[in-house]
Structures
1.
Amino acid sequence: MNEINNIIEALRKFRDERDWAQFHNPKDLALALSIEASELLELFLWKAADEADADKIKEELADVFAYAFMLADKYDLDVAKIMQDKLAKNNLKYPVTKAKGSAKKYNEL
Amino acid sequence: MNEINNIIEALRKFRDERDWAQFHNPKDLALALSIEASELLELFLWKAADEADADKIKEELADVFAYAFMLADKYDLDVAKIMQDKLAKNNLKYPVTKAKGSAKKYNEL
Amino acid sequence: MNEINNIIEALRKFRDERDWAQFHNPKDLALALSIEASELLELFLWKAADEADADKIKEELADVFAYAFMLADKYDLDVAKIMQDKLAKNNLKYPVTKAKGSAKKYNEL
Amino acid sequence: MNEINNIIEALRKFRDERDWAQFHNPKDLALALSIEASELLELFLWKAADEADADKIKEELADVFAYAFMLADKYDLDVAKIMQDKLAKNNLKYPVTKAKGSAKKYNEL
């Protein structure tokens, strides 16, 4: 079994021991993911870009990953595979010659 | 090299070919992660919990993972390790005997 | 002075008594607004659509309005006016004949 | 009728002409508010604090206000009143003597 499957397996076990699958419909998982991403963001509020507390980032980022992995599991997505596909797509949307050194969105390049 | 490191390595290569590291300060990465999580959430808006388009979820979830992995890289975090630590912590916050079948937050259990 | 200006005036006074204008750049105000909207959303997590606590909604919605009004003030926007303009635009994007009874986005109608 | 009631009345009329009340349960309104706040935030992504496009901010902020006012209406909240109550509470949480010139949260002051 690979590394990501091991993580997902541990998350499933934690969930099932608590009988939480009943709450984990896709919509609420997406809500939870968005809420955790916002808690991570709050660590940077009113601060310079590098002033957030690294220990707290570790905690909030783990929460983000937990819901992201559970959503991947819910939709039977292979995380390594969807990342490869996304990079292949973004390679076309953001060709190096046009995108180099620019923070513009692909539709403004 | 393991599975997650391979993903992060591919993300780094994509970023560096475009000279984008200059934009990827931690605060803006956290903003991007939160924005992508919100785009994923939008797929469920005005819909029942299981009515979102699975193909679009694949796309938006890949974007979420991209920024989550880049933040992990930025703070030198081992994703498998922070997930283990989080589950160990949550095991104490949500003991099976108290949390089973309940969707309450740990501080309301 | 009108009703909304009175609210904005009270928010400004609160801010200036604490010398907080130095933190209130537009980007961090937008972060704060997004974070408060997410805290409001959290009141609905794992719940049916009408099960959120109304007292807590009052609190979180007030926080959302606080940052929304401060952003309006920062950009010198007349809230009543931008709402009128938005409704006029949406009237064209969502004509009654096409949009009636449909939750689709304008570009899918 | 006062200024805010006029705005809410116009929003209700727009909604009812399109028979959209059926979709506007509180949970989806909170989702929509959070999504719009995130679209506003995106205008600042990869940018310095004052580089966002003011015209786009006007548009996104109007969307934020639309859902915030509709949630206030849904819970029968008087916006001017909840703002007054919030400021009174925050006055206790953030006393001028402690909070002046500090961006810390009340529980860290």
2.
Amino acid sequence: MKLATLKDGSRDGRLLVVSRDLRYAVPAQAAGTMQQAIENWMAVEPLLQAEYHALNAGEAAAAFGFDPKAVAAPLPRAYQFVDASAFLNHGKIMEQAYNLSVKKTAGIPILVQRQGDDFLGPCDDYPFPTAADNCDFEGEVAAILDDVPMGVATADAETHIKLFVLLNDVSMRAHLFRELSMGFGFINAKPATVFGPVAVTPDELGDAWRDGRVQLDMRVSRNGEWFGQPNGREMDFSFGQLISHLAYNRNLGAGTVLATGTFSSPHYREVGSACLAERRAVEMIDHGESRTPFMQFGEVLRFEMLGNDGQSVFGAIEHRMVATEVVA
Amino acid sequence: MKLATLKDGSRDGRLLVVSRDLRYAVPAQAAGTMQQAIENWMAVEPLLQAEYHALNAGEAAAAFGFDPKAVAAPLPRAYQFVDASAFLNHGKIMEQAYNLSVKKTAGIPILVQRQGDDFLGPCDDYPFPTAADNCDFEGEVAAILDDVPMGVATADAETHIKLFVLLNDVSMRAHLFRELSMGFGFINAKPATVFGPVAVTPDELGDAWRDGRVQLDMRVSRNGEWFGQPNGREMDFSFGQLISHLAYNRNLGAGTVLATGTFSSPHYREVGSACLAERRAVEMIDHGESRTPFMQFGEVLRFEMLGNDGQSVFGAIEHRMVATEVVA
């Protein structure tokens, strides 16, 4: 099943059911918003599935053409957004290039609490104050969870994954090292986050969802040029491991968005990277200097995943970086 | 004006208007939930004020006795919860006792993104898995903000503070140094957060709200014994400075909860502390060892602030620490 959220002027938008081929959509009848659907998933999911099947069969009378420009993030705001750094290869390259030393503990995943109040849709312009902030991107996938009880076992944790989404974890590198070295995670380093057009249930991924990983290429391009396509199979922790660590000593409320961290592959020389910082770090290691510039105003980014059937899973994020208008 | 949220079995509860003396409450007519009130504050606030005045005048027909045990956190869940560490004295004592070195930048406040999906009410039992996690408390105040535009100036930022709340930022110290030294903020170190019974508009504080600080004592007791009463005037950053730093490069969504960090005073030998870690650090400095134990199951904590008129501002947080029931 594929779901999206139509921008309708409200803060939470209007839940849509979207056809598998992403050509058609219809307003969901079983729930008005994504948050309502997640909170009542047991009751709502079979009804939404029935609407999805009717839409795919060409039997939804209210169907209209699906336009990714008309949608918000599938979950337009979240009571919890946690980002992992679950591809250890990424950290390894960064530490090597910049002589960093992150004090990791073996077997404990890196997770960071993030803001859930400022999510952008897949084609929204992305405003930021100055290119001097060293604007970067990170191609990621996130799970959306229903209620997770404190102390959930890793073996049970993945039953709480109701949907997956695609995201660009936009990062301002000029603030990142300073904030990281302080210890308290990210504030100015990680402003608004951009999400792909639709959320999909795990069954839509077929075989590609296995071992707790979304085993598909993250296809990233910059201004129409190929940038990289690392695969989700390279994750060093499964979603189950991430969830059980997060829920060790508290309940997680329905609608938690839990992201993987930037996709990254040890075979980066063949498959490239999903963020600028990593390519710049490889250049630093190879040439003693970084050559690929950070994002400038007017540049366009694109992120997409194709399923094993060649069909776009989430639709594409395709957005432009723009200068913030002065507001104060 | 004082507002609270009645537990009614729903996730967001039912908004209450509470009398100034905290003796009576009445269901709000102008908004069903706190989040709805904050999102529509301009329209809703005058109506709520009228209900408040009627209640205080004994003219609210539907009034009933206010019971802090029957309420949830005033905002039971939040799309953004950020905690500052705005009393630099606290960090200074911690760094001295444990030979830490937090890489602060002068003039930039420490802020940390936190989870907004698991807030507890003022008298809820607080479950945690094991006393070996070194359970601690931190007495704090938070502002609840309406929509804040990107780039807001410090001088304008405090106009976005609609309410203040009291909180106990429960901390598991066994995880804290490990997570802090990794750089990515807190996960297992900061589980559920406990909030005081009512939220109050800034005017309820009178003179005590000035220079961007809530200038009242944070009265903390443990098992009925005085623990400390540091004053909010000791904050090294104003709320305006914290807000403008947070909003530097993005919009903040209505309902952001922005907390001060644990109250702390350079005169700690007279006024005590608002957290165990700080008292233990002072003991470490004085005696070469910490003597005050962390929280055990069954212990009770109490936090309260009295206004300059001697009246309890927020009502009291008074909760008991208990062992988590095995859920998985």
